Amino acid sequence: MIAYHPTTIKLHSEHCPHAVQLWKQGEKYDRSIFHTGVVAHSILEEIGKNPDKEPQQITDEQVEIHCSKGREYDKNPEPPAPIPDALEGARLALKWHSRNPVPSGEGIHHEEHYAFDKDWKEVSYYDNNARFRTILDVVEVEEQFDEASEETYTSVTVRDYKTSWMATDKELDTFQRRCQAVVAWLRYQPDIIILEIANLRMGKTYHKEINTHFETDKLEKWKDDISLAIKTLDNQLNPSPGSGCIRCPYSRSCKHFEQMNNEEDIIKQYIAAKETVTRLEPLVKKATKDKTKDGVGFQTKERKKVLDDASQTLLAKWIENDGTVEQLYDTLDLSVTSITKIAKILTKNRQQRDELMSTMTKPEQYPSFGIKKNAKT
Ligand code: SF4
Fold it and tell me: Are residues 182 and 315 both part of a single domain?
């Protein structure tokens, strides 16, 4: 019996059904883009589990392990991480910990494993009847006191560490997040679930709260959605080569991707070439960091940079020529970036800023050339 992870189900939506098929067949996939995140996660986990140990010592040990032996995921060994990727993961983890100390103690679980059978009965992680498995980065189970009702209630915070710049509040309503909410709901039966995205790169957190009493139907629906996804993925899954091939971890071993390279259709060829470039670019950047090769690498170019005192110089010159500040202001060509900057100074919070911005900007459609993910032709 196959047990699926939220990330496996994500392969279907982000890439194509065949990616899940290849996962089921045990095909090796490209883990290179995950190394930094994996190392950062391990360090934060170890810091949380060993609060009395020096974080730097933990970090050094983890980098050494990840760069020499590699790690195991669901009993599958994974290759060691390149040292620069591991050091980047270490930097992100330590920076995060210095600003947001990793919690430890009673009710705090790091890298906690969960597994459920087809009827959503919790089973041990490697149980043969498991149909759904997941590991949560941090779970904080707390008894809280509500002063208004003078009653205690249980809250469960599910924290997910992310190392991608792209992980913002949009990540709070993804399939993966819903899976996490369902798992926390089933295991802990809390009153409140707080889903949290911790973006290690940006040093920011995003939250969303679910009241399990008022939102039971929603949680039930999410649970049913996962059951349906599992049932669907049990089928033979056909390929759908196209925009999903971009950043697909199986593109190197997938014969359908290989075929796209040789298609007559120039659009298919373009998608295939784009995936190859997307995959190779970070590696080529690394390889040519110090020296260009065959003309490929970082070229030194020149552009004009505005000096720090340019605005004062401009204002002084303007006044010297009998101009007023209002006239100068009228000549300024404002950009969204510049008015956002001014709006930040003029407002106290995000909501006020958004309101002010909505009075000064409007959405506009414009043609932007590129590939839309999962677009159907
Ligand atoms: S490379 Fe393309 S066709 Fe092959 S599994 Fe990935 S998304 Fe599907």
Answer: no
Q: Is the pLDDT of residue 357 over 60?
A: yes
Ligand 1 atom with the smallest distance to the CA of 19 is 5
Q: Is there a contact between 58 and 12 (Cβ–Cβ < 8 Å)?
A: no
245 Cα to the center of ligand 1, angstroms: 5
Positive or negative: CA dihedral 142, 145, 151, 157: negative
In a domain, 115, yes or no: yes
336 sits in which H/E element: helix 336-346
Cα(213)–Cα(144) distance, integer angstroms: 16
Quote the domain boundaries for residue 316: 310-358
The model carries a pTM of: 0.78
Of all atoms in ligand 1, which is nearest to the CA of residue 15? 7
Which of 149-163, 206-220, 315-329, 363-377 is the least confident region?
Answer: 363-377
Q: Print burial letters for 358-369: b (CB count within 10 Å at least 16), e (below 16).
A: eeeeeeeeeeee
Q: Distance, CA 86 to ligand 1 centroid (Å)?
A: 28
Say if ligand 1 is within 6 A of residue 271 CB: no
Per-residue pLDDT of 123-142, as tens digits, reads 999 999 999 999 999 999 99
Query: Which of 233, 262, 282 is a domain's end point?
Result: 233
How far does the centroid of ligand 1 lie from the alpha carbon of residue 167, in Å? 24
Structure confidence at residue 377 (pLDDT): 42
Flag whether 337 is in a domain. Answer: yes
Higher pLDDT, 34 or 219: 219
Owner of token pair 């950009």 = 335
